[in-house]
Amino acid sequence: MERLSRACRVFENIFGILSARWRIFLRHLQVQPEIADNIITSACCLHNMLCANNDFEPANKDLNSCEGGLTNLAGLRQNYTQYASNVRDKYRDYFVSDVGSVPWQLERVRRGRQNI
Predict the structure, then answer these.
(1) Mind listing the pLDDT tens digit for each residue in 99-111?
(2) How many whole angstroms separate alpha carbon 71 and alpha carbon 88?
(3) Has this prediction a pTM greater than 0.90?
C-alpha cells in the first residue's frame, strides 16, 4: 500500500510540474487515451530537454524572487514575451534538427496543410 501511495504522490508531483509549465494540464484532456499519452509524453520530453539545456525556470520564478515582499513588475511582460520567443525558437530548432526530428513529421505537416 505504501508503494501505491508513493506512486500516486510522484504522479501528482509530475502533473503539478507539467501544469505549472503548460496550461493544457490545468483542465481535463478531452481526447482519446492514445492522444493523451502522446501529449503527456511530449510534455515530459520537452520538460527534460529544457532541463538538460539549463533552460528550466519555474513558472512562478518572478514571484519567488521578491525584495522586501514586493515584486518589481516593470518590464515583466516584455521579459516574459522575449523568454517565450526564445523557448519557441529552441523548440523549433530542436524539432527540425537531426537529433529532434522524427521520420514521419514532414509528411504529417504536408497532410495537415492540405486539409486546411
Answers:
(1) 888 888 888 888 8
(2) 26
(3) no
